[in-house]
Amino acid sequence: MRKFLCILAVLIGCILPAAGQKTSMKKLESQRAQLEKDIALLNRRLEQNSRNKDAALSNLTLLKSKIKAREKLIAGCDQTLSVLDDSIHVVQRQMNRLQARHDTLSLYYGRLIRGAYKNRDSRLWYMYILSSESIGQGLKRAGYLRGMSAQLSNQALRIRETANQLALQKERLNGLRKESADMRRKVVGERTRLKGEEADANKLVSQLGKDRKRFQKELQEKNRQKEALNRKIADLIRKESQKTASGGNKSAGKKSGGKTTSTEIDTKLSNEFAANKGRLPWPVEGAIVERFGKHHHPVYTNVELPQNNGVTLAVRPNAQAKAVFDGKVTQIVVLPGYNQCVLVNHGAYFTLYSKLKSVSVKVGQRVATGQVVGTVDSIGGEDLFHFELWKGSTPQNPEGWLRN
What we know:
Glucose Permease (Domain IIA), 2 domains, eleven-stranded antiparallel beta sheet
């Protein structure tokens, strides 16, 4: 029993670390694949912008986003290397234990074989049994000889099993070492590309700094558009919140055009939306180029940009924007620089989908998670999508709500 428990403990000690490392590696591989996809998308956008002489500021934004993605990619590769190194050490320790076990079994087996060889004459075995003083003793001696034969066979089987396990671990170790070497080469290549991108960004900063007046004019226009968006959306959400608040928690409604309407907050929908924080799907597939909050201009670092109440993503041309959760379309508005914008209500929460060239829904329509609300527009040669998430009249950082 004790022997069985010892073997079980060894097996559990080998399996649990391996399972944890497998999960960690899977997550790192998924993150790395997403970052590589983001970098590829940003590369395509930069290539398209290379034909546009007036896209320097946009290129700088894209390039800085690519640098951040590259830095995360390198950090992820470093983590992968660390996991691989740990795995190599674990496998090496397992191999050392298996080798020691194999050597011990082989030594014991050798002694049994030598003992059997010395007494290999079958007549000695028969004489040993026949010289017994009683039938009982003879049976015991016969049982002893059968047991010794079985022990030899069992020991040989254990040696073969241990040898097979050792061969598998050696194969796994070689695979891990190859993977580690490939990852180290990848890290070197990524660091080289990162240096090149940082140099390109510095050149763009220098170029933009020389034409300060023109770019400041563009900046002022974009700032006006963003401030107008912030005011308009805040106003729309405030009015929608007031409508629902005026309904209170009563079940009564008002008749309008023969239909019964209710402004009561959908508490169940609100709770379901809140319960999915961190698990909501992204409205589009793309790379983030502008994050939530206040930021400074990438060139004129003393200039603070207007509050960004959401996230802006670089996307593929004609990308489709999808609802992140069940809800009801409450507003569709058109704003300079943001084109068509769709506001969806989720009880006490709101989501905004903007920079759309076409809309697939209408006001009052109920939408389901993943339903297309519109197609992203190309504005000034840029395929960008802007998304916001509000709790009542307070903007939230979408990255904290959307699936990582």
